[in-house]
Structures are given as structure tokens and as C-alpha cells.
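Usage

Read records sequentially. Each one opens with the input sequence:
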Amino acid sequence: MAAPAFCAVLWLGRFPPWPTILLAVATAFAAYTAVYALNDLMGMQTDREKFAGSGINPGFAVEASPDRHPLAQRLLSVRSCVCWMGAWFVLALLGSYLLNPAIVLILLAAAVLEVVYCLLLKVTHLRTILGGVVKTSGPIAAVFVVDHSPAPFSLLLLFAWLFLWEIGGQNIPSDWNDTVEDRRVNAKTVPIRFGFEIAGRLILTCLALSIVVSGFLPLVSPARLGLPYVAASLLVGYLLLLRPALRLHRSKDGRLAARLFDSASYYPLAQLSLVTLFLAAEFLGA
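and closes with the structure output:
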């Protein structure tokens, strides 16, 4: 949820009013919860096939709780999951409408793309692109919370930054970590299709480009974010994205793919903390 918050604050150049913040946070939580539940629901049968042999992978990443995939492990019934997902989705739709009716369309599109993404698991590795779009939809929706008519070029810049971060720091590393289970069900992923060498190069390329794009993000903000902010942002990108990606590329160790996923997961929070610090300094110096 830090990624939508960062995009909204950066775009506005300050924090929005408290009522907007509270409604936006509640809506984002409901939307993310509903879409993650939808992912588990759509992937239930495949997940059970993955874990049929040696059980669920112990995992090494932030989402590697032993209770993950509760449907596949029969910790929840399908009915419970549908009710859970439906309730959160309705709340997300209501909150989206109150914030900006255009966000309702973004949420619906993200849900449809998530379904297609899950259905393509055994069809094509190009589903990775859909995963990037779905993950980017939340932060883009956050821009529409604070600006009902955002400039297309600035929106595209944010999209490119988020999309490259998601593909290089989340999607491909996650698939890398799940390679054993994915092969068991004949899944089509980037690491399986191209091998670890090319997957590592793609990760490095996407994350390097994402870091470069991050240097231009102050252009979308009315705040006076100068060179010190850009330098700090690039440093954060190197430490949380590029450095662990280089280690993974050199070693090809699946545990390092999970660690990259971990590190990249904290990148939006680091960016939110950074922009908050600089905005606070600007406010105090005004």
C-alpha cells in the first residue's frame, strides 16, 4: 500500500486532507485484499497440483507464510473465500466511487486482468506483462484520488517506473523462487521459458531502467524536489533493487531471488519515507 501512497503524495506535492487519506487507505486495503483473494481462488486447483508432491514450498520471501494459499491447503472453504473476496470487493467499489468514479473502472479492469493472468499460467510466459499492469493499477488509481484529470505524460512516467519495478523486482523473482512447483504443473514462466541466465539479465535490465526512470519522477510533482532528492532516490534504488539483483545474477541461487523479492517489496515504502522527509524539510524551511 506504500506505492499508491507515494504516487499520490508525489503527484500532489503534499499530503491530501485527512478524510481523503483515511478513505483512500481503507479503499486500498479492501481492493488489495479482494484481488489477492481472487488470485488464490482462481489458482486453487493449480496450487493443489503444485503441492501434491512434496507439500508447500517453505519459501524464503515475505509472502512465504506457512498458511499462504489457504484454499490449496484446505484451511478455508471455497464458500468462505468467495464471501471474503466479495465483501472486500464491494467495500473497495464503494470507496472507489466516493473517491473518484473513474477508479471504479480501474478496479474492475484490474480484477478482470488478474483473472486472465491466472488462466494463462499454463499457456504463456507473457502473462508476466499482465501481472505488471495489475500491480501498477493501484498506484495509478491513487493519482486519480488527488487529480481527476492527470496529465497523460506524467501518468505514463509513473506507470513505466512501477511496471519495470514489478517485473524485475517482484514477478520474475517470485516465479524464480517457485520454479520447482511450476515445473510440476507445466507452468509457463520467464525462468522456465528462458532459463536463469536470461531471467537474471531481464531482472537487471528492468530494475536498472526503473531506477533511471525514478530520477525523473520529480517532474510529475509540484514540490521542489531537487538534486539531493534525486540522488537519495537513486541510492535507495541501488541498495534495495540493483545490488540484490546483481547478487542473484551472479549466483543463480533461488534463495537470493526470494531475498530480492523481499528487498524490492520495501522499495515503495522507502520512496514514501524519502519524499515525506523532503516535503517535511521544505515545509519547515518555508
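Summary fields computed downstream for this record:
- The radius of gyration is 19 Å.
- The domain at 2-285 is CATH 1.10.600 (Farnesyl Diphosphate Synthase).
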